[in-house]
Amino acid sequence: MKPRVLIVDDAKFMRMTLRDIFEEAGCEVVGEASNGEQAIQMYKEVRPDIVTMDIIMPGMNGVEVVRRIRAINSRSKILMVSAMGQQELIAESMEAGACDFIVKPFMREEVLEKVQEILQSYSLVK
After folding, report:
1. Alpha-carbon distance 55 to 92, whole Å?
2. pLDDT by residue (tens digit) across 64-115?
3. Which domain holds residue 99?
4. CATH number of the domain where residue 39 is located
5. Using CA atoms, how far apart are residues 84 and 27, in angstroms rounded to an integer?
C-alpha cells in the first residue's frame, strides 16, 4: 500500500516540490494545506499516514498545528520542514510530538529517507 501524505506549507513552490518528490517515489499525496487551520481540517478528513509540516506559517505556526493534530491522533506521524536557524522551534516541535525534521533547502533523498524511517519505526506501534 502506498504511503498517504499530507503536505503543509504556506509556500506553493515548496508544496509543489514536495508533491513531485512524493509522487515520483510512489506515495499518494492526499492533500495540501497552506496554513494551520486547513492542515487540521484536512488531517481530520483524509487521515494521512504521514504529514510534512512547515514551521513558520501565517496565523498558526507548525508547532501549534502539531499539538492539535496530536490531540486528534496521538500516533500521528509528522515530519517538520524548517529553514536554517529555527533550532528552538524545531526543539519545540519535537516536544510537541513531531517525529523528526529536515532543514530547507533539502535533497530529495533526504526527504524520502526520513519518511521511510518514520513509517518503518512507527509501524510497530499500529
Report:
1. 10
2. 999 999 999 999 999 999 887 788 998 999 999 999 999 999 999 999 999 9
3. 4-122
4. 3.40.50.2300
5. 27
